[in-house]
Specification:
By secondary structure, the chain is an alpha/beta fold. It contains eleven helices and nine strands. The relative contact order is 0.10. Bound molecules: S-adenosylmethionine.
């Protein structure tokens, strides 16, 4: 019975997580599991459930155990080749939507285009394709395994025809676009080695070099050649990188309007550059 299965689990496993795992093993929703404490698991479901509980006890993060995670109200496939979507990245999405709508209303743009650099599971490219509708998106990643996951997610959400996936370094293979969005690795190398919470996620998705801004700097260095007039850059950054990121923006785009936006926790999170 569901109720006795749940009560037999170690108390260190939060109840909500146990319910999500049980729901996944039974091919049901968490709401259904909660509403049917008397339901029985068949042999196959029990084996799946026990396998997932064993993965949890080895320290595998819940999203990898479940094989999917929610971002901006959409479910995305995830595996250990991609970063687990973080709620902080919703700020980039909100700003990208608002600024895209403004730009489209002010300029006679027929083919509005965006580059999502370091797409990972594809959450930025896919969410923007769904929310903006009429947009062409280039989604790049240096990892072929990540690109594979992003393509599957684009198919799952019915936007694969609007996204071109490119395996390459930063903006390699991307033409000129109206907006560049990037959530590139931004954890300084020395911090990454000590952070327990991210040790299961790919190094390629986290390591931002000695000061966390190496990839953002390389992106800014090449971005000008890929931006159309009045183009915009949105780059997610770490909480303590605001000032340094603004210095980089001034260095590479001295005449642009640059700012750093804070997330809901009041921490520096998003570098925004409006090219003149
Ligand atoms: C922090 S993760 C972000 C993934 C996804 N955009 C998100 O917000 O969840 C960074 C991604 O950048 C990719 N990446 C790292 N270096 C890169 C490079 N030089 N060019 C393109 N992508 C890169 C990694 O493979 C990883 O998928």
């Amino acid at each position: 019975m569901i109720s006795s299965t749940l009560s037999s689990l170690p108390s260190s496993l939060p109840h909500r997580e146990a319910e999500l795992i049980l729901a996944q093993a039974m091919g049901a929703t968490r709401e259904w599991v909660i509403a049917h404490p008397e339901a029985e698991l068949n042999e196959e479901q029990r084996a799946r459930f026990e396998d997932m509980i064993a993965q949890m006890s080895r320290g595998t993060p819940l999203p990898y155990v479940l094989g999917e995670w929610e971002f901006f109200g959409l479910a995305f496939k995830v595996n250990p080749h991609v970063l687990i979507p973080r709620p902080e990245t919703e700020l980039l999405i909100e700003e990208a939507i608002e600024k895209s709508q403004l730009l489209k209303s002010q300029l006679p743009i027929t083919n509005y285009s965006i580059a999502d650099v370091g797409t990972g599971s594809g959450i930025i490219a896919i969410t923007l394709a769904k929310k903006l509708g009429n947009v062409e998106i280039f989604a790049t990643d240096i990892s072929g395994e990540a690109s594979k996951v992003a393509k599957e997610n684009a198919q799952r959400h019915g936007v694969a025809d609007r996204i071109k996936f490119i395996r390459g370094d930063l903006l390699e293979g991307v033409g000129k676009v109206n907006m560049i969005c990037a959530n590139l690795p931004y954890i300084p190398t020395h911090e990454r080695e000590t952070l327990e919470v991210i040790k299961h996620e790919p190094r390629l998705a986290l390591d931002g070099g000695d000061d966390g801004l190496r990839l953002v700097e390389r992106l800014l260095d090449t971005a000008r050649d890929h931006l159309l007039p009045r183009g915009i850059i949105l780059a997610e950054i770490a909480a303590n990188e605001g000032e340094a990121a603004l210095r980089l923006a001034k260095n590479y785009f001295p005449t642009a309007q640059s700012e750093v936006k804070k997330d809901l926790a009041g921490l520096d999170r998003l570098l925004i550059i409006h090219i003149a």
